[in-house]
């Protein structure tokens, strides 16, 4: 079991919650590949920790009230860690709340996060963001 890999991903979620981008940066490879589902806020493919921090992490902080990615368990996949949990928050411009289950795959290389692949129900997120 790769407990170090699980601890790395757990630490990333903790630092995200604390909004500590300085320490988050240390957990990722500089050229990390980030794959956010289309239809999800910031959906698309990003390369590099600067893009992840600017277009993904700051977007949640700016556009959502109390955005949380609450993990419930982690699965050791050898060179990957799967985080299972749910997203929750309220979209600022509509004041609509959301709660949606997710699975995130984190690919680990050399003790750092090299890639992320997201799987979630984008309909629930889009519904919270809809003005109607």
TrEMBL record:
Domain SnoaL-like per the UniProt entry, residue ranges: 9-115
Coiled coil: none
Superkingdom classification of source: Bacteria
Pfam family, one: SnoaL_2
This protein's name: Nuclear transport factor 2 family protein
Organism expressing this protein natively: Ravibacter arvi
């Amino acid at each position: 079991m790769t407990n170090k890999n699980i601890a790395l991903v757990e630490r990333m979620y903790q630092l995200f919650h604390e909004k500590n981008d300085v320490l988050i940066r240390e957990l990722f490879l500089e050229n990390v590949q980030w794959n956010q589902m289309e239809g999800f806020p910031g959906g698309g493919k990003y390369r590099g920790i600067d893009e992840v921090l600017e277009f993904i992490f700051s977007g949640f902080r700016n556009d959502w009230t109390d955005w949380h990615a609450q993990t419930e368990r982690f699965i050791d996949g050898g060179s990957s860690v799967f985080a299972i949990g749910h997203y929750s928050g309220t979209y600022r411009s509509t004041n609509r709340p959301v709660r949606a289950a997710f699975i995130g795959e984190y690919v680990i290389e050399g003790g750092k996060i090299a890639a992320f692949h997201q799987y979630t129900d984008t309909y629930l997120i889009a519904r919270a963001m809809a003005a109607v």
